[in-house]
Specification:
Blueprint (H helix, E strand, L loop, with lengths): L1 E6 L2 H7 L3 H8 L4 E6 L12 E2 L9 E2 L1 H12 L6 E11 L2 H7 L4 E6 L7 H6 L3 E4 L9 H12 L9 H5 L18 E2 L2 E2 L9 H19 L1 H5 L1
Parallel strand pairs: 1-2, 1-6, 5-6, 5-7
Antiparallel strand pairs: 3-4, 8-9
Length: 225
């Protein structure tokens, strides 16, 4: 997989992708992540890619021409399955969406800023708009990092124990059950006996029941979905 991230702050993105699982995935050759500084596509001598909005409202808008030029340059080199825009009013990011994107070969992720991008870019270049929550961030870099992390970690071979990724919260529509590790007793607090029983069918049933109950208590809307 290849992911091209279009950003005003490539150094900020570079720091995140040099650590942990996403870094190991790149070193293994399972994913290639490339950053593109949108200032390089500026049409002004000051390197700006934003301008005042028509109509006189407050704030600035990312201009259509430099962003379109960047996207078209990338598209001239390879086919992209999706051109993603991180937007507060986009479709809410979810585990099923991460699973779907992990099956793609090439992705572009445009990090939004200011009041957003010129609507013509959204109409003619963007194929998928994603939000990571009902709040506004200073920029789309954090959202892009969240999306990429969720997608990369489930690529085959990225995590040593792939079964672990399949048992993550939301993979089956439920949050994950409680987890325990050694020691079996700490300050009088004991690990549930069933987890020490060695009976895998009973353990699986216990995990399912716990996940169901925890979802009912903490995220009941998932059960409705």
């Amino acid at each position: 997989m290849r992911i091209d991230i279009l950003t005003l702050f490539p150094n900020m993105m570079d720091m995140f992708f040099k650590e942990s699982i996403v870094s190991r995935a790149q070193k293994k050759g399972l994913v290639e992540v490339c950053f593109h500084d949108l200032h390089d596509y500026s049409l002004t001598r000051y390197g700006s890619v934003d301008d005042y909005p028509y109509g006189g409202s407050a704030g600035m808008v990312m201009a259509v021409e430099p962003l379109a030029n960047c996207i078209e340059e990338l598209q001239s080199q390879r086919h992209y399955d999706e051109v993603i825009y991180t937007a507060p009013d986009g479709e809410m990011f979810s585990q099923p969406m991460a699973n779907e994107l992990s099956l793609k070969e090439n992705l572009i992720v445009l990090c939004g800023h200011y009041k957003g991008v010129d609507e013509r870019l959204r109409e003619h270049f963007i194929t998928k708009e994603i939000s990571i929550g009902d709040y506004v961030l200073t920029g789309g870099e954090l959202a892009a990092a969240v999306i990429c992390d969720a997608v990369i970690r489930i690529l085959p071979g990225v995590i040593g124990d792939e079964q672990s990724a399949l048992e993550d919260s939301f993979q089956d529509g439920l949050v994950a059950p409680p987890e325990y590790t050694r020691p079996a007793e700490f300050r009088g607090w004991k690990v549930p006996d069933v987890l020490l029983s060695g009976d895998h069918s009973k353990i699986a049933q216990w995990r399912y029941e716990q996940a169901l109950e925890r979802t009912r208590q903490r995220r009941p809307e998932l059960l409705k979905e």
